[in-house]
From TrEMBL:
Provenance organism: Furfurilactobacillus milii
Full protein segment contained here: 251 to 575 of 575
Record's keyword annotation contains Protein biosynthesis: no
Domain PEP-utilising enzyme C-terminal: 2-293
Principal place of residence: cytoplasm
Tagged with keyword Magnesium: yes
This protein's name: Phosphoenolpyruvate-protein phosphotransferase
Catalyses which reaction(s): L-histidyl-[protein] + phosphoenolpyruvate = N(pros)-phospho-L-histidyl-[protein] + pyruvate
Cofactor(s) for this UniProt protein: Mg(2+)
Organism domain of life: Bacteria
Length: 325
């Protein structure tokens, strides 16, 4: 099977009925780009920039970050690299950045909430990204956005730094997509509003499931509530995709679910544009896509959205897949 998947390395990600999708990879450092190219990745859908911070004994300065983003962009040879701004907090800590003691860190001071409060961290990162944009195809996304106001504030700081660099004669790309993660249920419910401001959405199912089911993603006692096929979650995902498309924007997914072979038929049926996963899952997913057509997966989605449980939907998909052979 592996040999069969390897043949797809240089092929497009296209369904049986000729619809194009993008298969992308999640990375943590620029060195991970090699595996993305080796496995036929069409983009980097999530560069978790916090690894730059976590692998360092001190705050990585603008220059150090610039070098990292530039290398990733160059090594992808013009294919898009979506860099997520710092997603510290929750379970991710930095020795050199003391955060407040909190009862509920996953509900606390993390990600964009820190960036908006501490522009001394946020601005150098945005400047590094803007400078790197001259060397490849960089897109930027903000993590943990919950409100229109948060997005607008983050975007305004980005616009300011962009203008500052241009005034200083620094070269930046003419256009950079600026989007957001969809991982907070409140944001999903107003996705139609957010779609007017964000250039794209990327659904972070790891956190979206955690917050939708109110179940800590690392707590084994409640792990049964990790239910990616539950109609409750599917309805949220559908809302994100439909809202993006209504404004002419694209929707991707960068949580674990994007490379889940049971989920992919459902996501295709809902019209998800971009699937970002670990590099080693990409070719298998491309192979699966080739076997599916978007009309029958859309019919499957109609049934799934009307189901009652996670298990019922999983069974539906398995039956559907068995019927293909
Ligand atoms: C997610 O929440 O699904 C996601 C992709 O981000 P992370 O796993 O880094 O929180
Ligand atoms: Mg997340």
């Amino acid at each position: 099977q592996k040999a069969e998947w390897d043949k797809l390395k240089d092929e497009a990600s296209v369904s049986k009925d000729g619809k194009n999708f993008t298969i992308a990879a999640n990375i943590g450092t620029p060195d991970d780009v090699a595996a993305v190219n080796d496995n036929g990745g069409e983009a980097v859908g999530l560069f978790r920039s916090e690894f730059l911070y976590m692998d360092s004994a001190e705050l990585p300065d603008e220059e150090k970050q610039f070098q990292a983003y530039k290398k990733a962009a160059e090594d992808m040879h013009g294919k898009q690299v979506v860099v997520r701004t710092m997603d510290i907090g929750g379970d991710k800590h930095l020795d050199y950045l003391p955060l407040p003691e909190e009862m509920n860190p996953f509900l606390g001071y993390r990600a964009i909430r820190i960036s908006l409060k501490q522009p001394d961290l946020f601005r150098p990162q945005l400047r590094a990204l803007l400078r790197a944009s001259a060397f490849g195809n960089i897109a930027i996304m903000f993590p943990m956005i919950g409100t229109v106001d948060e997005f607008k504030r983050a975007r305004a700081i980005y616009d300011e730094e962009r203008q500052n660099l241009i005034n200083d004669g620094v070269k930046v790309a003419d256009h950079i997509d600026v989007g957001m993660m969809m991982e907070v249920p409140a944001a999903v419910l107003i996705a139609d509003k957010l779609a007017k401001y964000a250039d794209f959405f990327s659904i972070g199912t790891n956190d979206l499931i955690q917050y939708t089911f109110a179940a800590d993603r690392g707590n084994e006692h409640v792990s049964y509530l990790y239910q990616p096929y539950n109609p409750s979650l599917l309805r949220l995902i559908k809302k994100v995709i439909d809202s993006a498309h209504a404004e002419g924007k694209w929707a991707g997914m960068c949580g674990e679910m994007a490379g889940d072979q049971v989920a992919v038929p459902l996501l295709m049926g809902m019209g998800l544009d971009e699937y970002s996963m670990s590099a080693t899952s990409m070719l298998q997913t491309r192979s699966l896509m080739k076997k599916l057509d978007t009309k029958s997966t859309a019919d499957l989605v109609d049934k799934a959205l009307d189901a009652e449980t996670n298990e019922d939907v999983a069974d539906m998909v398995k039956q559907f897949m068995a019927g293909l052979k």
